[in-house]
Design brief:
This protein is mainly beta and 235 residues long. 5% of the residues lie in helices and 58% in strands. The strands form 2 sheets. The protein has an 8-stranded antiparallel β-barrel with strand order 1-3-4-7-8-11-12-13. Strands 5-6 form a two-stranded antiparallel sheet.
């Protein structure tokens, strides 16, 4: 009787799992002209430490030798880290009605007069909770999978802009303007893949982070997506 209970408990335990991993994120910036301009001095810190932790259940166990995959259902929390973008910037060429003046991202230079310059000191973080399906195959001690599903992300971003020119529409030299992103949870999607050997897992995760309802009181995030790679342990 006791042996039967032990066997049943071990079988049930194999359907549930948890995983934690540490690694790094590479953020995808919004691009030239958003918080920095490639034609001027700038510094982008987009590759940063990251981590994730999650729990899951095997809804369809994999049968070895079968061409049909097994399927896990996972609930994961992911911290993608904190990015920053700093640099000098002038008004865009689009801000000039006649197109003469301001920064042109195509030429990486100004269309005539650059206009007043400000120093942008910006940064923010990204975290998300995802519910994903993970089809997988097993070959000996190796496990290969892909993963995808909906996610809710929360991104923060603040922008501190200091006037460097003698005069400007934002005030004299040294004048500071601070703006931020409205850090409300947003629905998005995530996808990825993993390779595991026994309990050690190398996992890649992609997440899309669109900025919505952008205005002067809700500036966009400095990134539009993030790529995370983690090395984790599954138990």
């Amino acid at each position: 009787m006791s042996l039967g209970c032990v066997a049943a408990g071990a079988h049930a335990e194999s359907f549930f799992h948890a995983e934690a991993g540490l690694g790094a994120t590479n953020f995808t910036a919004m691009g030239d002209g958003m918080y920095y301009q490639q034609g001027f001095s700038h510094h982008l810190k987009l590759r940063v430490p990251a981590g994730r932790i999650g729990i899951g259940v095997t809804s369809i166990p994999y049968t070895r030798g079968s061409w049909l995959p097994g399927v896990d259902v996972n609930l994961s929390y992911m911290y993608f880290g904190t990015a920053s973008i700093r640099g000098d910037a002038v008004p865009d060429a689009a801000d000039y009605a006649n197109g003469v003046g301001g920064y042109n991202p195509k030429t990486k230079s100004c269309n005539g007069e650059c206009g007043p310059m400000r120093y942008f000191d910006t940064g923010g973080s990204l975290q998300a909770i995802a519910l994903t399906l993970e089809p997988y195959y097993e070959f000996g001690n190796w496990r290969f999978s892909i993963e995808g599903g909906p996610a809710v992300f929360k991104g923060t971003w603040t922008s501190k802009m200091t006037v460097e020119s003698a005069t400007s529409p934002w005030g004299p030299r040294g004048s500071v303007e601070s703006l931020s992103h409205d850090a409300k949870p947003q629905l998005t999607w995530t996808a990825g893949a993993s390779v595991a050997y026994k309990r050690v897992t190398l996992r890649y995760t992609y997440i899309s982070t669109p900025s919505k309802n952008v205005s002067n009181s809700n500036v966009p995030l400095g990134f539009r997506a993030a790529h995370m790679v983690t090395l984790g342990y599954r138990w």
